[in-house]
Sequence to fold (425 residues):
Amino acid sequence: MCSLCLVHSRSDQGGIRLRLYRPILVCMLFFATLIALHTNKTFAADERPIKVFVDTTEIKFQVQPLVVEGTTLVQFRPLFEAMGMEVKWDQTSRVVTGSKEGLTIALRIDDPHAVVNGKQVQLSQSAQIANGSTMVPLRFIGESTGAIVYWDRVTREITVFTDRLLKQRGITKEELQKRLDAYTAKQAPPSTPPPPAGPSQVTQPSANLGNLKALKGMYYGLRDDVGGYECGGTCWDIYTFLPDNRILVGPPPQGGPETIDCTRDGCRTYTISGDKLKLSNGESHTIRLSGKGELYIDDVFMSPVKPVANGLKLKGTYEYIGFSGLAGINAASSSWTEHLSFSSDGTFKSTDLTLASLDATVSATNSSASKSDKGTYKISGNTLVLTYADGTVVHSLFFDHDPGGKNSLKNIQIGKNNFYITMEK
Fold:
């Protein structure tokens, strides 16, 4: 048996089962024959606090990890030190920094961006203060160091697999990921409340659903793309649930959900069975509700898109930052910034903005790009219409990430990208 598995248990019966699981999990990843020993182990998703491990060592936190809209936040100092990083905290600027040879990660409290080796990267959740401690996004920190971060939903344990462990075990990241995927496939699916006999007639998306039959309207969720290879740093998953079990995945090509025409826009039909959302094109996603009735698709927390008032006017300069390549790890990585400035008189200016970045449909002309950098705009429902001075017209999905909140209209979605007003330093 793998030597990692020979660990003494605690005296209480519950502790015995949990203590043995950690080394056995690691052994399973490197010796596939042990996987079958634990495929019947199931736990309720909300029964225990989340545990965090770096390789085979559990990190002890004074403040328990928090889950904020699908992102796990943990105390920065124990995490950085477990990752072999030196830690600094600047009380004046409210910036925490972790550094080691070739890598520096800095996060400012309540700033939706981190700085990795001098490059700004968007976060799914900003660092924040909780119970007197600074909390940082675990997955982002782990993957920025080149590690693999794995969430075990059954045991509510997160493991950060470092290059050091992989070298010790003589396994590549690709092979480890395959074994993690195989292990995940053998887990019992999360429980889902049974659907009622008939479909619900909800007209607007709801933040708290009673069952999966109540799905109606557009939902969105954020996934970190730390490598920058899939979505330029952040991936926005967008699903619009329509009548007659139809669905549109991604931003509608002509603007908001109110513009969807399934004969034109490529809608699919879908079915939900257990924890599987199956589309008519063969795609399959996991889907579930939390104990609070919140929607998760592929373990990404999904928020409802709320309509905005017709005739809404924006004011200020918004920016979108993207990158390609593993920031802080890959020397060939690159980044870009795009700006949109809106005035309350209905005019706008753009800087380094490509129409393709909006994931929008160009109408009124056959141009693929505008030759102008200014024009007029209007907002109707969840659709933003940009009319450039040269006649190019762009229709894009539009919504506010914090409608009615303290950051209302400071953080907005245009097409597939997130534009925000830069926080004052």
In short: Helices lie at 13-30, 76-82, 138-144, 163-169, 173-185, 262-265. Residues 316-421 form one domain.
